[in-house]
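Quick illustration, no need to memorize.
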Amino acid sequence: MKEIAYNCFEYQQTEGFELVLGYIPGYDEEELERKSEYDSIEKFNELYYQIAEKIYKEDNIFITAVISKSRVIYPGAPVGGEKVYVIKGTRNPQYTEDKEGYKNAVNRIAEVLATYLKQTTYSIVWRNERYEYFKKE
């Protein structure tokens, strides 16, 4: 087997985020148990991509993300928890040098998603991360 060489672009610190966002409007159990077109992760990913692409065209910053479905457990949540999406990403300094621009783009995506999905709350956790990016020679 032939070994493939990868260059490592090491960055000491960069920023990462985790956005947690419900996708069914309302807070009572009956509302939260409702079916939604966004029960399909593919449908949600399409919506995310449309919003991220629009922001990219305006600001030249694309927010690459890893998206997964999950549940949030809290007092009064429906049995099994509120249906949410967890959206994670890390700024790759090779493609996005502007730290504040990146943060602003993430915040805009979150706000547009929350508005579109009729959510009254969402959360974003920011982390400083050590980032290593590998690229094939």
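The mean pLDDT is 90.
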